[in-house]
Amino acid sequence: MASIKFVLRKNQEDKTGRFPLYIRLIKDRKTKFITTGLKLKESEWDQDNQKVKRNYPNSARMNAFLAQKMADAQALVADTERKRSYVSANKLKEAIKGKSSENFFDYAYDRCERIKGILAPQTYKAYKMNLNKFEHFLKTRDIYFDDITAGLLNDYINYLTTKLKNNATTTHIAINVLKIMFKYAIREDVIAPNIYPFTNIKVKKNNSKKQFLNKEQLEQLKNYKITRCNTEAYFRDMFLFCCYAGGLRFSDVVTLRWKNYNEIENRITVDIRKTKRTHQFKIGKTAIEILNKYKSEFNEAEDFIFPIITDSNFFEKTAEYQANHISNKNALCGQKLRRIGKELEFPFTLSFHLSRHTFATQALANGMRIEYVSKLLDHSDIGITQVYAKIVNDELDKAVEQYIE
């Protein structure tokens, strides 16, 4: 419960010997002052009775004014505390001054909807999921920007790591989503920059090593006999195709149609879903052999090359439907590849994205110039591709240490 009363600020004497009269609010041992706009001499103020003395001009009228001001302030404090499970001293101060602090979740969820059209579907999904996670931690949506302090964030980090057992990268992403919402709110002048609580909040991401298949592992995967279902064979072939065909992402290869393949030039032309750029490149012998497995005289230009998506009206559906459908197929693909990887006893978890890493490292190891690899991967910056060059160099160093004395 907040404490509220008038105080004469005696450390702020002006040249006429008067002191400003403030409303002093104390909540959770934090003190806030709200000016009344009134200045008094010490001899004109009765601190015990909380009113001006008779020697003050028009004292009766002034006391009526102060009584009303105090009643209004107390009513605002009581109403604000009643509506919210927790309220900060700063929020109460703003309520008395007539300023309303923005509800964090109202703003954040609304912001997600406003930028939904320019976000990748998976990014939008990640924003919403992490906002829901924070809401679950708080057990309420009734929280304001200024209630989110460094202390609260550290409690949340502790909850993520100890209760939910989130790793460093997952925790980093959860905090980063909150940070993004604060930055949007500051940019839109919804909140003041000085309440930004992340300055001293540090969460490290895992230094994860990029995994890839070497030549022997690629051969093992090629020769792996599928005995369970056709879908498993489709996913395995898609993975191998991407290892040899520019490291296409899952979303781009699963939606690849025969019209995207120029058989005469052995060229793929596709609109990359992530970057929205049209991308084209030639494919080599192994990738062509994989495509030929799925080629028949009955193929239509609009048919999917790999028969994973069976919805013939897929491209007529909404972007959200397409994204969710691809996400579900990607999850199924992950299950199938993990099982294959375990049976082949690979020293890492086999996931579809490793096909992209495998293409990059194999191309560089075989002497392809890094700018060409960057172009084939459709990287926006060659610096991204240099990660793979370092991997290849590290592998070469290991080979020298192992085989050359």
The helix-and-strand class reads mainly alpha
Tell me the total number of β-strands.
8
Instruction: Write down the overall geometry.
Output: elongated
Number of helices: 14
First-last Cα distance: 76 Å
CATH class of the largest domain, named Mainly Alpha
Verbal overview:
By secondary structure, the chain is mainly α. It has 3 domains: 3-97, no CATH class; 104-195, Tyrosine recombinase, N-terminal domain (DNA polymerase, domain 1, Orthogonal Bundle); 215-403, Intergrase catalytic core (hpI Integrase, Chain A, Orthogonal Bundle). It has helices spanning 59-83, 89-97, 104-114, 121-138, 150-163, 168-187, 215-223, 230-244, 250-253, 285-293, 319-343, 354-365, 370-377, 382-403, and strands spanning 3-8, 19-27, 30-40, 45-46, 51-52, 261-262, 267-271, 278-282. The strands form 3 sheets. The protein has a 3-stranded antiparallel beta sheet with strand order 1-2-3, covered by helices on one side. The protein has a 3-stranded antiparallel beta sheet with strand order 6-7-8, with no helix packed on it. Helix 8 runs parallel beside helix 12 and helix 13 (370-377) packs across helix 14. The radius of gyration is 32 Å and the shape is elongated. The model has no long low-confidence stretch (mean pLDDT 87).
